[in-house]
Specification:
The chain has 233 residues and is mainly β. The protein has no helices and ten strands.
């Protein structure tokens, strides 16, 4: 038998992040950044992308359908001047920016974007061709934190690193409010699937972590020497 995948069901997701910035009062600027494989990936960016807002009970309280604000290709850079990046890899990034009003609400708000499926070349996720992604940002209760924006990473890491070569990258973030930041390793979240690759609005929580492909694991996501992280830096 033959299986034909339409573009909506195809693999392409490489990564993403979801940020918010509180402007004045109850108004927030929301920024979604999505990365896709533009060499082996078969699906385009969502246009519009559906971003849901859930309360602390998991109820959908708002949804927005946001068109692409900017889109472009990421230069193929490598962390060594002595090596030439491969030419059969291509990454694109799309940014979605919009403003929304979220009235005070007991408990937190949860911003959510979901998409299936992840890039097929990923090695450490089980059934990667059928595994989607969920990107989440939590807005705390305004009665506890009157004004808040979430941290934003300062730099984009290089698209390639060299096996067995020393590698240093400052992956720190900046909090617009000057809040202290604690860094930790967390498991990527599953999201949409092949049956509903682009849920509009996103599915409600809870969201579950990806299933690791052996020999990888949460304690050793890259294989080899187990990954560790300094919570302060």
């Amino acid at each position: 038998s033959l299986l034909k995948l339409s573009p909506g069901f195809a693999t392409h997701i490489v990564g993403g992040e979801l940020n918010y910035r509180q402007l004045t009062g109850n108004e927030y600027e929301i920024t979604l950044i999505v990365y896709r494989d533009c060499f082996g990936g078969q699906a385009a960016f969502d246009d519009p992308a559906a971003i849901g807002v859930f309360d602390d009970q998991g109820n959908l309280v708002a949804s927005s359908y946001v068109n692409i604000t900017t889109q472009g290709r990421i230069p193929n850079l490598i962390n060594s001047p002595c090596l030439i990046p491969p030419t059969n890899i291509c990454y694109e990034v799309a940014t979605y920016v919009y403003t929304t009003t979220l009235p005070p609400h007991p408990g937190c708000y949860q911003l959510v974007y979901q998409r299936c499926c992840r890039n097929h070349s990923v090695l450490n996720i089980r059934n990667v061709n059928f595994t989607g992604a969920t990107y989440v940002a939590n807005i705390p209760d305004s009665a506890i934190v009157a004004h808040n924006s979430n941290p934003i990473f300062n730099k984009l890491p290089p698209t390639f690193i060299c096996e067995d070569a020393p590698f240093t990258f400052d992956h720190s973030a900046t909090d617009p409010d000057g809040d202290s930041i604690v860094y930790e390793i967390c498991a990527p979240l599953q999201g949409a699937d092949q049956n509903s690759p682009m849920p509009q609005p996103p599915n409600s929580p809870p969201y579950f972590p990806i299933l690791w492909q052996s020999p990888y694991s949460m304690s050793n996501p890259f294989g080899g020497v187990p990954l560790s992280i300094d919570p302060q830096t």
